[in-house]
Design goal:
With 136 residues, this protein is mainly alpha-helical. It is built from 7 helices and 1 strand. It has a single domain, classed as Antennal chemosensory protein a6 (Orthogonal Bundle), CATH 1.10.2080.
């Protein structure tokens, strides 16, 4: 549920770069716990990321940076952001697996993220094995 970076999840959350600027600082302003607690907000979040519908300014920012976050396995995310993304990814994978697959196929059509980042995510309790098999 932390892919929101998906998710995520995530997908998802930025690390401090060498010049001490965090390009994903806006993620710190999003209350992901509140999103997880409200099924309607989860729907808005997923629709924004996957279908470009109903985006709030904050969700629009997430959507804009999501390809980079996915491509780099959230390499530039801060530790706190990585933890929050992991929680969100795990949540989404458990509660909304079909939508996660749609998001993965949209932002990672060749399955590169799933292959490269699967081990890192597995260590955080996020198993993408099912999604490695189902990539399209």
């Amino acid at each position: 549920m932390q892919f929101f970076p998906f998710v995520l999840v995530f997908f998802a959350f930025a690390n401090i770069v060498s010049c001490s600027v965090n390009p994903y600082q806006f993620l710190d302003e999003i209350d992901f716990a509140a999103i997880r607690e409200d099924p309607n907000e989860v729907k808005v979040y997923i629709e924004c990321i996957n279908e470009n519908k109903g985006c709030t300014p904050q969700y629009d920012q997430v959507k804009m940076f999501l390809p980079e976050v996915i491509k780099t396995c959230c390499e530039m995310c801060s530790e706190a952001q990585k933890k929050e993304i992991a929680v969100m990814q795990k949540f989404l994978l458990e509660k909304y697996p079909e939508q996660v697959l749609e998001i993965l196929n949209r932002y990672d059509p060749d399955g590169d993220y799933r292959k490269i980042c699967a081990d890192k995510l597995r260590r955080k309790g996020i198993d993408l094995e099912k999604y490695l098999e189902e990539e399209s």
